[in-house]
Design goal:
Blueprint lengths: L2 E4 L2 E4 L6 E7 L6 H9 L4 E7 L5 H7 L3 E5 L5 H14 L4 E4 L11 H9 L5 E6 L7 H14 L2 E2 L2 E2 L7 E4 H6 L9 H11 L4 E6 L13 H19 L1 H30 L4 H34 L1
Parallel strand pairs: 3-4, 3-6, 4-5, 7-11
Antiparallel strand pairs: 1-2, 6-10, 7-10, 8-9
């Protein structure tokens, strides 16, 4: 059975679609073999981004028939994932599936993740990880916070913003251009997909965190990295809203402390230095933030018009 991309999705023709898998990996020699072998059963080609590994991750993947692109030094998940997206376009893939190299995702679920794209129901499919009683409280809390900060919803339900188990259609590959180099890339891609009005769907998937190669001990760093990546994304994509919002907050602070300063002066005939300094400082920040937002908004608008 063949599928071809149309505006409505994939329509049945006479050949099967070209599906490829992209696997960012860093020091994953304990798990990469299983991930590559099992993924190969459901895709036409597997790409492993050996992101500066100090072990035999790349060598193992290469021996198992995967295409391996090696970074001489660790450049971060965002850079590795961006390479996967570009490679998928170069090989003219109909669908790109991404999954982590540590074995936390089950390659046997690839058909389930790809299916909505093949049916024309989605451009981006996110594997939504199910919580279990064994998941640690900090993990559940962190995921909820990051999902809410990312703010992408499907049918009123927040998308699992940090799930790396995803599928991208040919259309999504053309429109998603991530810039983030760190762990915040997954959230960035979701927000870009939402802005581009791509069809996003979630499907439930399993995830394991009891593996020796899993990077769960970096949870706190991961959380901060993602949070600040989202802040950076918002400041660049929506500068007037971001800086204007901060300006409004600072303006209110300046007014509140200014009124208190004047009230003390009226009652006691003296200026409370601390209150006055806070009011003046907040006022300066309000004006600087406002004009920064205006300037960036203008520059970005001009750049978009020239595309």
């Amino acid at each position: 059975m063949k599928y071809s991309r149309s505006d409505a999705g994939y329509e049945t023709l006479s050949e099967k679609p070209k599906i490829v898998a992209g696997i960012p990996a860093f020091d994953e020699e304990l798990a990469i073999a299983k991930v590559v072998v099992h993924s190969s059963r459901y895709v036409d080609k597997v790409l492993v981004i050996d992101d500066g590994s100090r072990d035999d991750t790349g060598l193992i993947a290469d021996k198992l028939g995967a295409k391996v692109i090696r970074n001489e030094r660790n450049q971060g998940k965002g850079t590795a994932l961006r390479t996967c997206l570009e490679w998928a376009k170069e090989v003219d893939a109909d669908v790109l599936v991404t999954l982590d190299g540590d074995g936390q995702h089950d390659p046997e679920e690839i058909p389930m993740v790809v299916d909505p794209i093949l049916k024309g129901e989605a451009d981006v499919v996110v594997g939504s990880r199910r919580f279990s009683s064994q998941d640690k409280a900090y993990r559940r809390f962190g995921r909820r916070v990051l999902d809410r900060v990312t703010g992408v919803k499907v049918n009123g339900v927040l998308v699992d913003a940090q799930s790396g188990f995803r599928a991208y259609s040919r259309m999504a590959l053309q429109k998603v251009k991530a810039a983030e180099s760190g762990m915040g890339v997954d959230s960035e891609i979701l927000m870009i997909a939402k802005e581009a009005q791509l069809k996003i769907v979630q499907v439930p998937v399993t995830a394991r965190y009891d593996l020796p190669s899993s990077s769960t001990h970096h949870a706190l760093y991961h959380g901060f990295d993602v949070f600040f990546s989202i802040i950076k994304f918002m400041s660049i994509r929506h500068p007037f809203l971001f800086y204007g919002g901060f300006s409004a907050i600072m303006f209110v602070v300046a007014i509140v402390f200014g009124v208190q300063t004047l009230d003390f002066y009226a009652k006691e005939g003296r200026v409370v230095t601390n209150l006055a300094l806070v009011s003046v400082s907040a006022g300066i920040l309000a004006f600087l933030s406002f004009f920064t937002g205006v300037i960036l908004f203008t520059l970005i608008t001009v750049l978009r018009e020239k595309r």
